[in-house]
């Protein structure tokens, strides 16, 4: 629901790492002619032809750097020429998974944390509700990465830069994205989403004027604009209703003219200087600039409601 900014410089940095891993495995596999030990799967004519072609010219680089706009046509082309590639667990599919996943995406030389740091995003672009980091069993901080086009169907995109989407465990897990095919459930790649595709508003059901913070159900969070595929898959409308207390606090701030008083106070505070964006951030209790939505959970919600209430301006 928030846009990821394209970064061709970092895409090329990633390409250097990914190309080395994939090229090494393809050469090894073409020499051996098969994968597996107990269950051996031999390369077919189709996989041999495709992998050989990737080693020619800039074909492998082009695959890794495929733009989000061109991925559907790439998928259509490969599916038409090599239909068995996109059949989960077919021999051809398993061979490609061995190349691009087992010896690529899952290889120790592909540092996922370093990859996320280069993209420079902290919250999930699918929901903007959660951070993308979690603790592994060995206590290490790791990022969650979703393959927008899932690897069980499209293993050849497992290391394509713009197919690797930082995400939270909820959005990438069961009951949400998991193995859903974006082409079938109408999902838009976060690199192609516009922030105005989603816009929050609210509905007041009732307000307890003696203790307005007592009942968060007095306010409903609404999506004024949204992409249907995303709300269906990620349950955004239902999940955001759990955050109505945040909206309630913003409403109360607007009713007591909080922003005007606080803004005047911060402008006149001696010893510290705040610019307008910093003051907006302190008034909201969240980042106030559109290009900073990714830095903190619920920033999109805060900004949309903050503008509607007049707490900040656009």
Unreliable residue stretches:
none
What overall form do the CA principal axes indicate? elongated
Strand content: 5-15%
The count of domains is 2
Secondary-structure element sequence?
HEEHHHHHEEEHEEHHHHHH
Computed Rg? 24 Å
From the N-terminal CA to the C-terminal CA, the straight-line distance is 19 Å
Output the number of helix runs: 13
Sheet with the most strands: spatial strand order? 3-4-5
Major sheet attributes: 3 strands, antiparallel
Structural class: mainly alpha
> What would the average pLDDT be, to the nearest integer?
92
Number of strands: 7
- Share of helical residues: 40-55%
Structure characterization notes:
The chain is mostly helical and 314 residues long. It folds into two domains: 178 residues, no CATH class; 115 residues, no CATH class. The protein has 13 helices and seven strands. A hairpin with a 5-residue loop joins strand 1 and strand 2.
Short description:
With about 325 residues, the protein is mostly helical. It has 13 helices and 7 strands.
Which terms summarize this structure?
elongated; two-stranded antiparallel sheet; 314 residues; 7 strands; 13 helices; single chain; three-stranded antiparallel sheet; mainly alpha
Layout of strands and helices, then pairs:
Elements: H1 8-32, E1 34-35, E2 41-42, H2 45-54, H3 59-64, H4 71-81, H5 91-105, H6 112-119, E3 133-135, E4 141-147, E5 164-167, H7 182-185, E6 199-204, E7 219-225, H8 228-234, H9 236-240, H10 244-255, H11 258-268, H12 276-284, H13 299-309
Antiparallel strand pairs: 1-2, 3-4, 4-5, 6-7
Helix pairs in contact: 1-5, 10-13
């Amino acid at each position: 629901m928030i846009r990821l900014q394209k970064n061709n410089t970092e895409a090329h940095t990633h390409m250097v790492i990914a190309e080395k891993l994939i090229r090494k495995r393809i050469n090894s596999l073409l020499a051996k002619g098969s994968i597996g030990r107990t269950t051996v799967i031999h390369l077919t004519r189709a996989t041999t032809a495709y992998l050989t072609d990737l080693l020619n010219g800039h074909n492998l680089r082009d695959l890794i750097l495929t733009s989000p706009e061109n991925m559907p046509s790439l998928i259509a082309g490969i599916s038409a020429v090599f239909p068995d590639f996109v059949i989960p667990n077919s021999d051809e599919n398993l061979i490609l998974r061995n190349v691009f996943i087992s010896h690529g995406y899952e290889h120790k030389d592909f540092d996922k944390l370093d990859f996320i740091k280069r993209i420079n995003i902290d919250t999930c672009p699918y929901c903007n509700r959660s951070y993308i980091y979690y603790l592994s069993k060995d206590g290490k901080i790791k990022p969650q990465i979703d393959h927008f086009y899932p690897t069980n169907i499209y293993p050849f995109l497992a290391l394509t830069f713009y197919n690797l989407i930082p995400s939270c465990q909820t959005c990438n897990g069961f009951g949400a994205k998991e193995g859903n095919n974006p082409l079938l459930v109408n999902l838009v790649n976060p690199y192609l989403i516009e922030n105005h595709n989603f816009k929050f508003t609210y509905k007041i059901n009732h307000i307890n004027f003696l203790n307005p913070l007592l009942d968060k159900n007095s306010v409903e969070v609404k999506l004024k604009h949204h992409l249907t595929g995303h709300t269906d898959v990620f349950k955004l409308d239902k999940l955001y209703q759990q955050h109505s207390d945040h909206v309630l606090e913003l409403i109360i701030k607007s009713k007591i003219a909080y922003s005007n008083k606080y803004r005047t106070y911060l402008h006149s505070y001696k010893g510290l200087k705040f610019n307008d964006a910093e003051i907006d951030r302190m008034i909201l209790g969240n980042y106030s600039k559109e290009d900073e939505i990714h830095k903190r959970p619920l920033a999109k919600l805060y900004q949309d409601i903050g503008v509607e209430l007049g707490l900040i301006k656009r």
